Amino acid sequence: MSFHPNDVAHRGRAAAIISTGVILALLVAFFRTQVLRNDEFALQSETNRLREVPIAAPRGIIFDRHGKIIAENAVGYSISVLAQSEDSLRGTMRRLAQTIPLSLPQMELAVRRYKRAPTRPTVIINDAPFDAIAVLEEHRIDFPSLIILSSPKRFYPEGPAVASFVGYVSEISEGELLQPEFEQYKAGQQIGKQGLEKQYEQSLHGREGSRFVEVDAFGRIVREQGAQERRPEQAASLQTNIDLDLQVYVASLFADSLIGGAVVMDPENGEILALYSGPSYDPNRFIGGISAAYYDSLQKNPARPLYNKALQGLYPPGSTFKLAIAALALQENLITPESRMPQTCNGYFYYGNRPWRCWRREGHGSLDLVGAISQSCNVYFYQLGLKVGLPRLVAGGVQLGFSSKTGIDLPEELRPRYPDAMAYFDQRHPTGWTAGAMSLNIAIGQGDNVQTILNMARFYSTLATDGFAPTPEVVKRTPERTRVLTLPAQQWEEVRRGMIGVTSAGGTAASAALSGGVTLAGKTGTAQTQALSRGETCDHAWFVGYAPADKPRVVVSVILECGAHGYAAARIASAIVGKHLGVTPMLMMQTGGD
Questions:
Q1: In the chain, how long is the greatest CA-to-CA distance?
Q2: Of 89, 210, 503, 515, whose Cβ has the fewest other Cβ atoms within 10 Å?
Q3: Per-residue pLDDT tens digits for 563-587
Q4: Where are the beta strands (DSSP E) in 436-536?
């Protein structure tokens, strides 16, 4: 076969063109790699050599109204491992367990952390004791992938006394990491779980910093010079309305023996001065992971320390609710403060072929509204409830806020239970009900009426301010309040006179009177129910009131589970008010009373 000279020349030119094209392509690729993308590949090389180590940010400090510390940051230590794989992590932890105490649950938790964030150092112990740190420093050469960091940890100086409102922090869970609000969070970080810590998490969290360590091909740390790339930024502080000294005093009154709660509030603006649920728990023990034994003890405690009774406890308000019935009847012009009921109290009231009893077996005789409040006469309020009528009781209760949350800036608040429409009764009592029986029960704070301690404090703030209901607030915000009751000034004065009678000689809480010319106005209550924490039927003791009666500066709401009589709660309330106003309660002998 022969080739034409032109064919050879043509092929030579084609080969030259192809060769030239290949060389140009290589030159372009080389130029892009060595010049245009030099920084990118250099960074990738550095990334393979350097590993980022996060530095936890101090959380914002929480202060009381006087600048005293409620929550701060103490020095803590964390132990982490730079793991190349799950197997290498497990191997390192097995060797660590021979040097320091390390339980199987801690190891499994660390593995889960690694799986969630394999590129970050895996936290083995979040809040390591100093003894463990000292031992590991001596054996540092044996654990080349180990990272020991000094990091801030949350500390609550007053511990259990403040847990009811401040809450606690703990490690973010797998479920929380999937939620949109935690999109920027990483596994192993601490977040607020309850109370203020949870409510104001976004402002208390701070900004995590980082530094770099140099590692070899096996992920072992070869140098920790690691210039700190970014310093952590502490979050801004948070100032509350809490009076820390008063809060600690309230906690001391409940001690470890009383079950219940208390709310202390400024009636004018809704500022929460103290909020306590007893018994409490120590939020410091949740930091870095709560021990299984302590958590189990909290869970099994029949007094339910993890249940916030001030915000979540739903209790029949008992006779403390009689002031709501009185106010609604006055507002509707159904009675005057001088009005007496048709049937005199002789210890019971017949309705529906059965007696509805008064707490005082021998009866109270004939009383006007002021006397019925101070003596807490059931028979008077049975008749007043029927006079108001069920539709107005429902509508009026909704108007006064008994069917809604208060709007406090804490995440645990539960909605009270109160009929919000007449259809409620059909749903709640499908086998049948009568308007009269419902009215009688609601009139004395029983039946389809369960309230929180906080909600009763809000209502009595309405009484203290002649009709304005404030929005309770723990952190200083813009105070809000709404007028929910309108009465003539003279009627407000008469209602107040009835409440003053409760703590006066012959009243149901005479032992709660104050000295120094300061008058406490309020109402006792004894509510029969199945106790939340004891699982038995008993009488809860209530007292809600305000002082000084002529110019209210403080409202206090107290309940004692299974506290028997309202005057028991009144004495605690009196002590709280006395502490706040700087006066001494005049403890008097008291026998009986609703």
A1: 139
A2: 515
A3: 878 889 999 999 999 999 999 887 6
A4: 468-470, 481-483, 521-530
